[in-house]
Amino acid sequence: MTSNADALTNKSLEHLMFPLVPRDLLHERGPNVMVSGKGLRVVNQHGRELLDMMSTSTRAGSLGYGNEEIGEAMRRQAVEMHYAGAGLNISVPAVELAGELASLTPGRLKRVAFTSGGSEATETAIKIARHYQNQSGRKPGAWKVISRWNAYHGATLEARSCTDWLSVRDDPAPRAPGHSFVANPMCYRNPYGLDEKTYTDVCLTHLERQIKLEGPEHVAAFICEPFQQANGVQIPLLRYWQGVREICDRYGVLLILDEVITGFGRTGTWFAAEQIGIEPDILNVAKAMGAGYVPIGAVITRDEIANAIGHFRHVHTYAGHAVSCAASLKVIEIKRRDGLIERSSRLAETWQAEMSAAFGEHPAVGQIRGRGFWQAIDFTTDRETHAAPDTRMVMEIADRVRELGVIVSPIGTAIEIAPALIATETDLAQCTDALAQAIREVTPRYGIGG
Questions:
Q1: Distance separating alpha carbons of residues 412 and 414, to the nearest angstrom
Q2: Does residue 74 have a pLDDT over 90?
Q3: pLDDT, tens digit (0-9, with 9 covering 90-100), for 410-425
Q4: Average confidence (pLDDT) over 148-153
Q5: Which DSSP state fits 36?
Q6: Bridge partners of 37?
């Protein structure tokens, strides 16, 4: 096993480029080559079994590993009709999946454009917004897009241009023109040290001011995540979303809701839009849409927006790929049939309470928050002032949790946990125990607890 593990490690270092990972960190820790998986457990190149509480690092694997139903659906479709092309060509699973999405998505969102993933979904959504504003005659010169501080919407050019999180924002190449950023709601700490209600008002004022500054006639869309991933599952007050919807309507700005992470059950409902109480103009989805088994994404909008676009000048070779759509149909069927989304929502309430009991009073733990199977532990050096911790401490806690056999993810000042929807109470308890132990062991090195 050791010689094979070394061979895999060396070959990956010789031939692969690793996104987001600094070279010194890559050589210090080495790559993780995942060899096999079943349920929530994966085996790496060293033969070590780990409990994956991140649905893979991207949160996409919402039904765990080794699901034979999904694999069989993909096999059947690959044999029958694996790929239909683009433009006028479409496959039967794509037609069926579009209908399923129309029935699942909230409000009047009925028209679907498929993509291969989240970054493409952002690119497609922005093009739809610009095409609509131009071809409908509402705003012939609208092309600008506003997003938020700490946003993440992807790594391709247009998506990176409205991104302010992860190292993709530091790409030395220029961003696409026409993008600007406004303040983002934050649950536990914000840059001005304001209470949450007051800071929410600041965020709304900033958005309206930015629209006026850019020129309302030039602003095509505002793109945002319902719950931001930066620093761990940031959940705004409902009044924030009501204000955003009112401002966008007032100035004719399309609201793009990026549910690439939150969609398809991650936060305890099919879509987080159901929880924030507004209907977006455009909805982006990917990741858990295919449960990690296939690359797939989609953009869903209203009839009036789609019908106003006489010529959609856009294409992706594998948009609506038949095998991917067949897999996604099976994913939806399983989640609906087995009641997994409702189940995860119920389990999450107990799980959050158990985490609070296990380590919620620790002096380094500032806040435990989340929805459904997307939870975060935000750390601090001072529970009264909410002072931000050294992020190296957060990384060391996550590393220690992994040494204890559980995969979680550091994300700025927080640790994020996003298990597959099939996670059991035993899985959740194992994760909680590992987190509690790691927090107790690591934080004294940074002068907290002990």
A1: 6
A2: yes
A3: 999 999 999 999 999 9
A4: 98
A5: E
A6: 42
When the pLDDT of each residue in the chain is averaged and rounded to a whole number, the result is 96
The CATH number given to 69-337 is: 3.40.640.10
pLDDT of 166 strictly over 90? no
Distance CA 94, CA 321 (A): 7
**Strands in 352-408 per DSSP E:** 365-371, 374-379, 406-407
Could you tell me the residue ranges of all domains in the chain? 1-31, 39-61+339-446, 69-337
Mean pLDDT confidence for 116-121: 97
End-to-end CA distance of the chain: 39
CA dist 25 and 64 (Å) reads 28
Query: Both tokens of residue 180?
Result: 């600007």
Q: From CA 396, how far away is CA 443, in angstroms rounded?
A: 9
Q: Would you give the distance in Å from CA 246 to the centre of its chain?
A: 25
Distance of CA 270 to CAs 329, 344, 345, Å? 14, 11, 11
Closest Cα partner for 207 from 156, 165, 251? 251
Mean pLDDT for 217-246 is: 98
Domains 39-61+339-446 and 69-337 share a fold: no
Q: List Cβ<8 Å contacts ≥24 apart for 193-197.
A: 196/237, 197/237, 197/239
What burial class does residue 154 get, using C-beta atoms within 10 Å of its C-beta: 0-12 exposed, 13-18 middle, 19+ buried?
Answer: buried
CB atoms near residue 149 (< 10 Å): 18
3-state class (DSSP) for residue 162: coil
pLDDT over threshold 80, residue 61:
yes
63 in Cβ contact with 265 (< 8 Å): no
Of 150, 148, 151, 141, the closest CA to residue 210 belongs to 148
Give the integer Cα–Cα distance in Å for 79 and 318.
17
Whether pLDDT at 7 is above 80: yes
Phi, psi (5° rounding) for residue 317?
Answer: -55, -45
* pLDDT score recorded for residue 6: 87
Looking at the structure, give the CATH architecture of the domain made up of residues 39-61+339-446: Alpha-Beta Complex (3.90)
- DSSP annotation of 270: S
